[in-house]
Structure formats: C-alpha cells, structure tokens
Specification:
mainly alpha, two-stranded parallel sheet, elongated
C-alpha cells in the first residue's frame, strides 16, 4: 500500500511565495457534475484498488493532461486487478462472441 505523505491544504492565493512542490498542496474547488457521470465514477472506483471516486477523477484528469509518470503496480495491485478484471473480460468476450455468431446461425437456419 502507498505510504501516506503529508499534504498541506489551503487556498492557492494564500500560499507563501516560496519554492514548494505543488503536488503536495491541495486546493479545495467546487465543480458541478451530472449525476450519471458521478455515478459512473463511483461505480468505476469500486473496481480500483483504492476504491475512491475522487482519486479516480484526479487520476483521469492527470491522464488527460499527461502530467504523471507511468504508474508502477505492486504485486498486490496486479493480483487484485487480475482477480477483478479476468471475470469481467471473459464475460465481455463471451457476449461479443454470442452476438457475432448467433445472427449468422439464424441466417443459415
């Protein structure tokens, strides 16, 4: 599990004018999201090792701006993903195969 780091909270305009790593500072903002979008992030977060939708939103924002380095997965993360994703992928592939084969079988009948 990731080591917790000390994070400073505050308003960006009240921060001292010194050289501070901005990744260690969090600024509270307000944002309005449609309910379906928020629900989708909450559901998707359940499939992540951390399970936090706000963390997932931040990860996706960073991906969009390409501000982060590639994520290094721990062995525990990989085992978790394998256990959660393998059944879901099998289900997706099975349903895709059924959709493609069934119409062809019906045409030949």
């Amino acid at each position: 599990m990731a080591k917790k780091r000390k994070v400073k909270f505050g308003k960006a305009d009240l921060l001292p004018n010194v050289d501070i790593d901005t990744k260690k500072i969090k600024v509270r903002i307000s944002i309005l999201l449609e309910g379906d979008l928020l629900d989708a992030y909450k559901q998707a977060a359940k499939l992540t090792p951390h399970g936090e939708y706000q963390t997932l939103i931040k990860e996706k924002l960073r991906e969009g701006l390409k501000l982060h380095s590639p994520r290094q997965f721990s062995d525990a993360d990989l085992e978790f993903l394998k256990a959660r994703l393998r059944p879901a992928l099998i289900e997706i592939v099975d349903s895709e195969i059924e959709e493609r084969i069934q119409p062809k079988a019906l045409k030949g009948a």
